[in-house]
TrEMBL record:
Residues annotated as signal peptide: none
Lineage of source species: Bacteria, Pseudomonadati, Pseudomonadota, Gammaproteobacteria, Thiotrichales
Name under which the protein is recorded: Potassium transporter Kef
Pfam hit, one: TrkA_N
SUPFAM superfamilies assigned: NAD(P)-binding Rossmann-fold domains, TrkA C-terminal domain-like
Domain RCK N-terminal: 410-527
Length: 667
């Protein structure tokens, strides 16, 4: 027990540093965990006993939660909406990639059983890297982003048959199973799958209805763990993998109304145990033998990146994508992924791969994942270089189609984003006789709205040439209603660059994005939550008897001031730092007789340079907002400070030990 605790503490310390370092370089934390495992494992510093039973079990539980989380994210509705692309494009990618890899591995002497799993591991791509990078680049809803997402969804599904056949292939490799026995095992797995789906469908929802009525978070969490681990135990008891049962449990829960609650509750367990799993994978990497294997590793890395890119591009082109979109989809998916590690770990456990083979495949996946963010970041540039004029011609063709469709519009409103708010605004404009043109990248919305007669076009509003083709130079106003703020920022910058005078109205959900959007050239930024507060306040004051003449200046003043009076509040101890770091906080500070600020004028403190201000001051029973800078502070004054959360330490230091203010870094 002491030894296991020692391992856990060591891993936690190293993981904190490694993950923080990788995040600072905008790289996925998975790579940090792999590095920790590689450095501390038996092949390097030997600080970590990765062969201990407890540690191996924790890694296996990490795989269970990885597959359980993927099952939760599986959506039958999304699958049905994209079934042609998912089953066709995604299915062909996994099958052809696996068969190609199998042929190569068998040619170089690997057993066909091990070759199937190694090839399957390399056929998978990294959902975490692809989704994060495309989201950061505002390309998730672009054509190549949607095609990549469809392939990733099928890869999630394709893990299931691999999980089924690994134990079967292990028995076949040992010579203990006949062809008939293998067939019976596969049939038994299919029956088990169907049985668990039927039983889970009729039992899980009633179970969680009963548990939720107790209104106990602890009971809910225990039940979630019980369901996930019970499903994993059942599949393992029947000779299949732990991960298969967890995936089935997650998929069943994804169709209940408790999906989001389950996701939020298991996230701490999932992240920690998945981190340990990736550490165990990294510990299996023998850095010492890599120089001896650099040639096959290099060939496999190049083959994976180039071969997978070309295969995906060819398939995407076959499924009606243009050359540019097809190649960009291939570049985005040119890496190994998390599921590859899971399959590789199971293959090693079941003896399907030897030490040398596992080192080559493991190193290939890791190196491809390290290179992947760079390739994804420059997928557009690489496509332009590789395709040249044909890519530019296709982009011009897309632009021309939009231009031809809106050539008769003049003085119209350009709506970027055609979901609920965009559609509502379009209807209001139509009722008032104002022409409009809308742009969106959801093909289902565009098709349905177009057939209904709406003037909406499938086009990427972040591209300046598309905006110009949509009549930006003739438009009266641009309204941006997209929910992705990175996309909203790119559209705002593109609009303002192309037209310096047109009004730009942007809808946002979080007021922390107001300043960045205004700096990019937005004319008006309307935060949903603050605007809702204004509307409720207006109604409230009307009900309290305030006249319209009194109310109108007050409401208009709030809006004209950029909602400044509403944007800061006391967050309490329930705040989520990752969400609220851009918001303004309020913090109360009581001035003591020994504080530096006691007896000083507010202007002498020069508080603004440290990123905060005094919003109000209470002295005795008297309170005043925005005190004059010539006011002299006294002991006992209660100051309400306004600023960002990470500035309050500087605020308190500046007020308490003013002689050392120069040592505190300004913001």
């Amino acid at each position: 027990m002491d030894h296991l605790l020692h391992n856990i503490l060591l891993l936690l310390v190293l993981s904190v540093g490694a993950v923080a370092a990788f995040r600072s370089f905008n790289l996925p934390p998975i790579l940090g965990y792999l590095l920790v495992g590689a450095l501390t494992g038996q092949y390097a510093l030997s600080w970590l006993d990765d062969r201990s039973t407890g540690f191996i079990f924790m890694g296996e539980v990490g795989v269970v939660f990885l597959l359980f989380a993927i099952g939760l994210e599986f959506s039958v509705k999304q699958f049905m909406a994209m079934r042609r692309t998912i089953l066709g494009l995604g299915g062909m990618q996994v099958v052809l990639s696996t068969l190609s890899g199998l042929a190569i591995f068998v040619y170089f002497g690997m057993s066909w059983q091990g070759g199937v799993i190694a090839a399957g591991a390399l056929a998978m791509s990294s959902t975490a890297i692809v989704v994060k990078q495309l989201t950061d680049q505002a390309e998730m809803r672009a054509k190549h982003g949607q095609m990549a997402l469809a392939i990733l969804l099928f890869q999630d599904i394709a893990v299931v048959p691999f999980l089924v056949i690994i134990p079967i292939l292990a028995g076949d490799a040992a010579g203990t199973q006949s062809a008939a026995q293998i067939g019976l095992d596969v049939l038994a797995a299919v029956v088990l799958f169907a049985t668990m789906m039927i039983v889970g469908h009729y039992t899980l929802r009633p179970l969680f209805h009963y548990i939720s009525r107790a209104q106990s978070t602890e009971l809910f969490n225990i039940t979630v763990l019980l369901v996930a681990l019970t499903a994993a135990w059942i599949t393992e008891s029947l000779g299949l993998s732990l991960a298969l049962g967890a995936f089935l449990a997650g998929m069943l829960l994804s169709e209940t109304e408790y999906k989001h609650q389950v996701e939020s509750e298991i996230r701490p367990f999932r992240d920690i145990l998945m981190g340990i799993f990736f550490i165990t994978v990294g510990a299996k990497l023998n850095v010492a033998v890599l120089p001896e294997l650099w040639q096959p590793i290099l060939l496999l890395v190049v083959g994976l990146i180039v071969g997978k890119s070309l295969l995906v591009a060819f398939l995407a082109r076959y499924f009606s994508a243009d050359d540019g979109t097809a190649l960009r989809t291939g570049l985005v998916l040119a890496q190994g992924g998390e599921f590859g590690f899971a399959l590789l770990a199971l293959a090693l456990t079941n003896g399907l791969l030897d030490e040398k083979e596992s080192q080559i495949v493991l190193a290939t996946i890791i190196i491809s994942m390290v290179l992947s963010p760079i390739i994804i970041r420059y997928n557009d540039v690489l496509t332009k270089r590789l395709l040249g004029n044909s890519y530019l011609n296709q982009r011009q063709k897309d632009t021309h189609e939009v231009s031809a469709a809106v050539q008769e519009l003049d003085g119209h409103v350009l709506i970027c984003g055609y979901r609920r708010m965009g559609q509502n605004l379009a209807r209001l404009l139509n009722q008032q006789g104002v022409s409009y043109a809308a742009l969106d990248l959801d093909p289902l919305i565009v098709q349905a709205a177009w057939e209904a007669g709406d003037k909406v076009y499938f086009a990427d509003a972040t591209r300046p040439e598309i905006l110009l083709a949509a009549g930006l130079s003739r438009a009266r106003m641009v309204i941006i209603t997209v929910t992705d703020m990175e996309v909203a920022k790119r559209i705002t910058a593109s609009v303002r660059h192309a037209n310096a005078d047109i009004p730009i109205l942007v809808r946002i959900r979080e007021d922390s994005y107001m300043e960045p959007l205004l700096a990019l050239g937005a004319t008006h930024v309307l935060p949903e939550m603050l605007e809702a507060t204004v509307v409720i306040a207006e109604n409230m004051l009307q009900q309290l008897g305030m006249s319209a003449d009194e109310l109108l200046p007050l409401i208009e003043g709030i809006r004209r001031d950029g909602y400044k009076s509403l944007r800061s509040y006391y967050h309490g101890d329930k705040v989520k730092p990752t969400r609220d770091m851009g918001e303004s906080f309020l913090h109360t500070f009581v001035l003591q007789p020994t504080d530096f600020a006691n007896g000083k004028l507010i202007s002498e403190l020069n508080l603004e340079r440290y990123g905060f201000s005094i919003k109000s001051l209470r002295r005795g029973e008297i309170r005043g907002d925005h005190p004059d800078v010539t006011m002299r502070l006294q002991a006992g004054d209660k100051l309400v400070l306004e600023g960002k959360a990470d500035n309050f330490r500087k605020a308190e230091n500046a007020l308490r030990i003013g002689s050392k203010i120069s040592k505190i870094p300004a913001v």
